[in-house]
Design goal:
By secondary structure, the chain is an all-alpha fold. It contains eleven helices and no strands. It has one domain. Helix 1 crosses helix 7 and helix 5 runs antiparallel to helix 11. Its main location: membrane.
Length: 281
């Protein structure tokens, strides 16, 4: 991995995380009105519309392989977002993101070929273990389970993002993936029914969520995924709990304990380690 690629990819990944966690904080404020499913539908659907209008992909030129990869990429996007929103409806944002990170962390361990990679992944794992309130019986176990399941699809999103980036232009892949994600989530939205209660004000907030949580970060992720190995991107995203914690504090007044802040230090150290030593042999 060249130094030039790293200079582009790492800032793109960091900005993506800042956007998506800020957007998640806004999205959580929509839950009382339209719930997790309705909010997910607004986020994904409006993002798909915006990206299609801006990028205007030439669908007629896509090959079967491109359609297949884009579809799997879109499934990862839809499942990851819908299940994650269902999780943060039940548990704090910082906790949900940390538990969700088990997916990318497991992916990083599976793809590791050097002992040093395992060290950074285990350090991030220690952070996850520290942030989970093992002695707190008030934490919703269903919420924790949903966050863990969302992490599985997060790993799928990373893998398919890397694959589709090799066969499609970034703007075409992101746009097509979001369209597939919209098609997947629409039946859940119709079944839920809350989307039909959307007002102009809620639609405006949903547009903000769509821009900051999907359209912009997924485009930035694509830049990073095209230039970073999947294992490096996976551990780098361990910064997500830190961004989530600060977003929860700023926008939702969700505070963390000293032990939870220590866990964030662990995952930040893991991210710095994997970035600094990514070129080592």
């Amino acid at each position: 991995m060249s130094t030039k690629n790293t200079k582009i990819a790492v800032p793109a990944a960091l900005l993506s995380m800042a956007c998506v966690q800020g957007g998640a904080s806004i999205a959580k404020q929509l839950f009382p009105a339209i719930g997790a499913v309705g909010t997910s539908t607004l986020r994904i659907g409006l993002s798909a519309v915006l990206l299609t209008l801006i990028n205007r992909p030439k669908f007629s030129r896509f090959t079967k392989q491109q359609w297949l990869y884009a579809a799997l990429y879109g499934i990862g996007i839809a499942a990851m977002n819908l299940i994650f929103y269902m999780a943060i409806q039940r548990i704090p944002l910082g906790l949900a993101v940390t538990v969700e990170f088990v997916g990318p962390l497991f992916l990083a361990l599976v793809l590791s070929r050097k002992l040093l990679d395992v060290v950074w992944a285990l350090l991030a794992c220690a952070g996850i273990l520290l942030i989970v309130p093992w002695t707190n019986n008030d934490i919703d176990l269903v919420g924790l389970g949903l966050a863990l399941l969302a992490g599985t699809f997060w790993a799928m999103y990373i893998v398919m993002g890397g694959k589709v980036s090799k066969v499609m232009e970034g703007k075409d892949a992101v746009t097509t993936g979001m369209l597939f994600a919209t098609l997947l989530i629409i039946p859940f939205s119709i079944w839920d029914g809350a989307i039909f209660q959307v007002t102009p004000l809620l639609l405006l907030k949903g547009l903000g969520v769509a821009i900051f949580s999907s359209a912009l970060p997924f485009s930035l992720d694509f830049i990073a995924l095209k230039r970073l190995p999947a294992k490096t991107f996976s551990i780098l995203t361990s910064l997500q709990p830190a961004f989530a914690a600060f977003s929860g504090l700023l926008f939702l007044q969700e505070t963390l304990t000293f032990m939870q802040w220590m866990s964030i230090c662990c995952v930040v150290a893991a991210s710095m380690g994997t970035t600094i030593f990514s070129n080592s042999k």
